[in-house]
Amino acid sequence: MSVTQNTQATMPAEPAVTAAAAEFVETVEFGDIPAEALRIASRCLLDGLGLYVAGSNEHTVEILAAEALESAGRTDALLLGHDVKLPAAMAARVLGTAGHAHDWDDSQVSVDPAHVYGLLTHPTIPPLTAALVMAQRLGGIDGKRFMLAFLTGFEVECKISEWMLPQHYGRGMHSSGTVGTFGAFVAAAKLLGLEGEKLRWGFGIAASFAAGIRCNFGTMTKPLHVGRACENGVTAALLAARGYTADPQALDGPWGFFAVHGGGLSPEKLEQGFGKTWSIVEPGVSIKPYPCGVLTHPTIDLMLRLVTEANLAPEAIESVEVHAGSNILKPIRYPVAANHLQAKFSLPAALAMIALARRAGKREFSDPFVASEPMQAMQRRIRTRLDPEIEAQGFDKMRSRITIRLKDGAEVAGWADERYRGGPENPLTDAELEQKARSCCDGVLQQAEQNRLIETAWRAAELEDAAALATLLPRETQGF
Length: 480
Fold this sequence. Notes:
Layout: H1 2-10, H2 17-27, H3 35-55, H4 59-70, E1 77-78, E2 85-86, H5 88-100, E3 107-108, H6 125-138, H7 143-163, H8 167-170, H9 175-192, H10 196-209, H11 221-241, H12 257-262, E4 285-286, H13 297-309, E5 317-324, H14 326-329, H15 340-343, H16 347-357, H17 367-371, H18 373-379, E6 382-386, H19 388-392, E7 400-406, E8 411-415, H20 430-441, H21 447-458
Helix pairs in contact: 2-10, 3-5, 3-20, 3-21, 4-5, 5-6, 5-11, 6-7, 6-9, 6-11, 7-9, 9-10, 9-11, 10-11, 13-16, 16-18
């Protein structure tokens, strides 16, 4: 008996992350949010609104919208691209998928060398989507309550992602679909005012809903992971509000989310707590300049620098060799992209765009451009190589180098800048972010509508009714 008691006395206490998360959601107030967190959140919100517009006429989204129209019920929230209202969860599925359709949404940063840099979660779209559809369903949600819900979901999502062991992603789970579910749930729960056992049940429901596997990268289903995270998070909150039960400690224990999905968590990180240091500020968030996997971005910038400085014409290029580590080459897996979805996970495709057009934007990441004869031919001149020297340096940064061989026998070569454009160490300026939002809106919204979207996004916290943000998005799109 005494031996057992002594053993128990020396055993570390089980983490209680669910309880800590619930307490944070219940108690955090708008006044607790640091000014810098609000500033960055406004940037993420503007970026997110632009991405909804960019994704609104994607075929991926049009198919989901058509399915939703046939299943319409309650008139909670606007269906993206239509002047029709749907149940909140269904509207969230379409809106969230649109936000991730171009793989242009922001990325959570980690400074933990055990994590593969850039492969945590896309933090904005799930809580932003949930907050937007719930603001419409509930009505009367002012800008401060809206931003509080968005940032609360953002914080919980990022901390869960950071604390979980990196095996989660290594095993093939897509964290934007899994952990994103909690971001959406928390944002919806905050606006619903869930507390106590209902709030904890909601975490349990969300834990069972969380899903998404990486084999679907490069297909329509990859952005649907985020759409489903948004839908499932909203559904979890609505069910919990009605008293639907679940395990009240579903993040913890041997059968909880951390253990089942990631093999556990990092106990030493729990001291970070929720809302002590806000993840949106430290270590920060990357707002993407290119609509593709963030792991390609430093290499794209390097290719742009090399071809621009040497003024290389496409026809002068004999071959391109890219050296990188497995942290880049495994996820970015298509040697030759056949369509724009595959191109988002293909270094040859992204670098071929730069070689041909010195751009890699929405126009270039389109099926006609990717399938064109010049693109297909240029991709076949580009090869990727696993570099043992880069591999040995670890995965805490996105490292790569390029050698371009010219037909006249000359070579142009260089290393990518680890302080990549868009990351916290080298962020896009507000002007560059506005230009990105406009490029997202090109061909969908008129100039005056773009101006209104940008101006309203910057003052979202001042809005009397945050549901007005939904009216900035397209109400009619081409397609079907």
